[in-house]
Amino acid sequence: MKKTAGIHHITAIVGHPQENVDFYAGVLGLRLVKKTINFDDPGTYHLYFGNDGGKPGTIITFFPWANAYQGKIGGGQVGATTYSIPTGSLDFWERRLTKFNIKFEKTERFGEIYLQFADVHGLQLELVEREAGDNNNWTIGDVTPDVAIKGFGGAVLLSTNPEQTEKTLQDVMGLEKIGEEGDLIRFKSYGDIGNIIDLKATPISRGQMGVGTVHHIAWRAKDDADQLEWQSYVRNQGYGVTPVQDRNYFNAIYFREHGEILFEIATDPPGFAHDESYETMGTELKLPSQYEEYREQLNHSLIPIAIRDLNK
Residue 312: pLDDT above 70? Predict the structure, then answer.
């Protein structure tokens, strides 16, 4: 059996790109590690936010469409994206969310305290203190490494067929079932971040893709060779899986599990610093070679965005 280390990235659909940047960089203190375009819709950004180095397991990516319709969170989607924060930093985040007038609920599950809230476009998020995982050495405004988001804690999955999704998580992705509480089943991978998945055990009617919803969840493959093994393994388990697709910062394969959630398996390398330095990641618009000739046109058509210090 193959086993993934956990989540590589999560990709969501949001609204106006500047609002997206203000929330994830300005409020949550994540680093904009890559500013590029949607390869399938080059008039739209593809923005990547993560820790200081853009490590797999920390990256949330966005397709921002300023005038797109609002989606509906439901079955076949990630219901909530969980972020891991350093032990002892929960009070800081309560104060910070309050400062920016972000409503939150404080809840408990599986013995952990969560702050649950929505981003500016309705995407459901939560923060939880965890010891595991390296600190994020990125500072923006008041968010310093001792309190900064480390990366993903995991995710809450909503399925139209939870029994089938449970089977996929265990028998295909290699996660271990470690507990049940109420209507949730908890799974764990061997990685230190992005490793806890809570699956809603009740079938949920299918959601509607749009602003404020997750498009797909991506799992980690060690490298290209490992990904090809995953491709054969997933296909042999009876799932339709795509050819390898070059996403410039990783290679990707996709399949839809039988609870209708779109899964991706993405390679850890080459990462986000191969076309920019560590120091300059996220500062320039990076384009794949096939779109380089359209750079001037894209620079004029894309909505300007900037990292802004919201603490002033």
Answer: no
The pLDDT value given to residue 310: 87
Q: Which of 193, 154, 194, 146 is nearest to 29 (CA)?
A: 146
- CB 187 within 8 Å of CB 170: yes
64, two tokens: 């921002």
**Residues 6 or more apart in contact with residue 39 via CB below 8 angstroms:** 46, 247, 288
pTM of the model: 0.97
For 188, phi then psi, to 5°, come to -140, 140
d(CA 191, CA 175): 10
Q: pLDDT band at residue 37, thresholds of 50, 70 and 90?
A: very high
What is the architecture of the domain spanning 7-301? Roll (3.10)
Question: Per-domain residue ranges for the chain?
Answer: 7-301
Rounded CA separation 52/281 (Å):
9
Percent of the chain that is helix, strand, coil (3-state, to 5): 20, 35, 45
Buried b (16+ CB within 10 A) or exposed e, 199-212: bbbebbebbebbbb
